[in-house]
Amino acid sequence: MTPETPTPATPPTPATGTTGDRSGLRERKKARTRQAIRRAAYRLFAENGYEATRVEEIAAAAEVSPSTVFRYFATKEDIVLTDEQDPLLAAGLRSRPAGEPVLESLRHAVLDTLDHLHATDRTELVQRTRLVREVPVIRGRTAEQAARDADMLAAVLAERAGHPADSLPVRVICVAVMAAVDETLWQWVSGGQQEDLHDLVDRTMDLLARGMTL
Predict the structure, then answer these.
(1) Gap between the Cα atoms of 205 and 101, Å rounded
(2) Are 103 and 208 in contact (CB under 8 A)?
(3) How far apart are alpha carbons 169 and 118 in whole angstroms?
(4) How far apart are the first and last CA of the chain?
(5) 118 CB burial (10 A radius; 0-12, 13-18, 19+)
(6) Mean pLDDT of residues grouped by 10 in the chain (214 residues)?
(7) Which helix (H) or strand (E) holds 178?
(8) Nearest residue to 129 via CA among 110, 143, 142
(9) pTM of the predicted model, to two decimals?
(10) Among positive and negative, which fits the CA dihedral 33, 35, 36, 37?
């Protein structure tokens, strides 16, 4: 009897996704979960008030476990204090032309970031601004958040300007711009959002650019 010819082994099927693809997918899933938690929280804050809303209720509304909420946000306040503004602002500043004046680069980065936040979720932007000003436990942590924002902005600005991130001019510029934008946001929100936010912030940057003269 003629021996059978062995059937060649089927070569393994190449993986359909690269490590980068899988990593990108994980990050997108994390971003979606983070956003779902934040949106559920803001909806409940609007309905029941910040103090009366429990993390367990936020988790149920977002269809995740309480431990998942705490994995993304260390405290309930962090749901409000942690947003998408910082990465957008950093990316916007890095994208500006290298030779552009510092304040002009900051103007474009800030306006682009606020335009995006306003277009994607104006309600959340208004709610967040109110909560930061009106809820004592959140207001008590705004200095900590402002310091982190200034650190982030100073690091990016230092890259562009060739100065140390802890140099006084870099720190003063970053702190002044962030404080001015925060105050402008509050004026817009407390005034009933009657004015155009883009124009209002643009005027604020004009004020800084001319040396804060009245």
Answers:
(1) 13
(2) yes
(3) 30
(4) 105
(5) middle
(6) 45 53 82 93 96 97 96 94 84 91 93 93 93 93 87 90 88 93 96 96 95 84
(7) helix 168-190
(8) 142
(9) 0.81
(10) positive
Closest CA to 186 of 141, 133, 146: 133
Rg (CA), the chain: 23
85-94 helix and 142-161 helix, angle to the nearest 10 degrees = 10
What is the largest distance, in Å, between two alpha-carbon atoms of the chain?
105
Amino acid occupying residue 201: V
Residue with tokens 């682009």: 112
- The residue length of the chain stands at 214
In this structure, the number of other CB atoms found within 10 A of the CB of residue 53 comes to 21
Q: Which amino acid is at 186?
A: W
- Tokens representing 168 are 């006084």
